[in-house]
Specification:
Blueprint: H1 9-12, H2 31-62, E1 65-70, E2 73-78, H3 82-94, H4 102-109, H5 112-123, H6 128-142, H7 152-156
Antiparallel strand pairs: 1-2
Helix pairs in contact: 2-3, 2-4, 3-6, 5-6
Amino acid sequence: MSNTANLSNADIYQQDDNDDPMENIDENYDPGLEDDQKDQDEGILDQRELDRKFNDLLFCVQGVGSYKEINGMQVYVKHEHCLESLKDIYKHLKNDGSAIPFIRLTLGNWNFFEKDLIPLVKFHKQDKKLSFLATMIMINLTSAPAENCTKVSKLVN
């Protein structure tokens, strides 16, 4: 049997009689000021988080591929880390908020579906993993927005 089983509640929660809980109170402390500061910090953190997501997404999209001219024809060429980039984009979409789908909106603004996914599948249909992942992203991008989505009009148009 362990030593902790032999301890009573009085032993565990014993308080020193010399400690005055009111001794360390700051008379100038205003809890309202702290809440205002937290609100300001959360706004800054939210913008920082959005900037981080934007930059991560941009990096992923740039890693998918681009058009190259080969023998006088425009061909969509996948980049070296295309599969990893598509996996990251899919993860971003899965973690995207339902009320404000920042990732979906950003990919829509960039016309990622039309400019990258369709040409990728068209020119690299022999790559089954790539085609499957691109199709999963297409399904996610074209699914109906959540009921609590505040940006429905942007997603539907």
